[in-house]
Amino acid sequence: xxxxxxxxxxxxxxxxxxxxxxxxxxxxxxxxxxxxxxxxxxxxxxxxxxxxxxxxxxxxxxxxxxxxxxxxxxxxxxxxxxxxxxxxxxxxxxxxxxxxxxxxxxxxxxxxxxxxxxxxxxxxxxxxxxxxxxxxxxxxxxxxxxxxxxxxxxxxxxxxxxxxxxxxxxxxxxxxxxxxxxxxxxxxxxxxxxxxxxxxxxxxxxxxxxxxxxxxxxxxxxxxxxxxxxxxxxxxxxxxxxxxxxxxxxxxxxxxxxxxxxxxxxxxxxxxxxxxxxxxxxxxxxxxxxxxxxxxxxxxxxxxxxxxxxxxxxxxxxxxxxxxxxxxxxxxxxxxxxxxxxxxxxxxx
Length: 349
Known about the structure:
- This protein is an alpha/beta fold.
- The chain contains 17 helices and 8 strands.
- Strands 1-2-3-4-5-6-7-8 form an 8-stranded parallel β-sheet.
- The chain is globular and about 55 Å long.
- The termini are close together.
- The mean pLDDT is 94.
């Protein structure tokens, strides 16, 4: 299948994305607007370009925090959610579990209730306008230490916002091992929150094991270290443990792999691992979900039937009800069949 037909097919198929940082879908125009509001002048082109000039995870995280520091007030959250809505529409993403990282904004004096209220309004608008369901996972963040993570969880528990379904452990896993946050995740579980954690991104498989065994994380973000630990990879496959894999993001961090053709996504899939496909940070890594599906088709040589299974995995690994998972997977099959019926000259190869 050529690229044009492939993108047409994948645009027609409803999809889920489970590893997506909401702030990282922000567009350059919005960044310029935020900068002007913050500093009262136009953003120099070289400063904008410098935001994307990083070669490792710490550099990326520094740019991420720098953009958050451009925010002047809570209404800026509504500004970036407009970009978020465009992204999900352009990629026909109908269900999202997105990360929200409040720490830098809290340190800048923003109120958690005000921020989450703006997010909930944006979620409601997206549902009404685009029929997309968005749920939020608050990043307690290993980048700022245990006390900060405890505080972020306290805010989530006090807020009781139905759009917030869980917590996540993001940030640089090399500097914030999972074992330091065991108490946070224990409290979150007792409160009925879902738990996910970034791991196996820039640290070997022991980091994933700690997240699973100590934090009782229900999904692992990235998790590609498992591909280099054969017994562990087999164990994950047997337990049907979900991984949120973001190939282009992993190419940028360069810890395990530096070329998309060498990425272990297909190795994990072929081993029977429960993998989902995600972008992580579309603006930062200049990739959208449709592009990632093209990458696994054209550069990792996935067959179309396997790609359909990966699409369904996005719904199956979500925190929605089993009934809703089945409904979405049925819609994938329906849209798939309808596209090929409308394009009889294209082979489902």
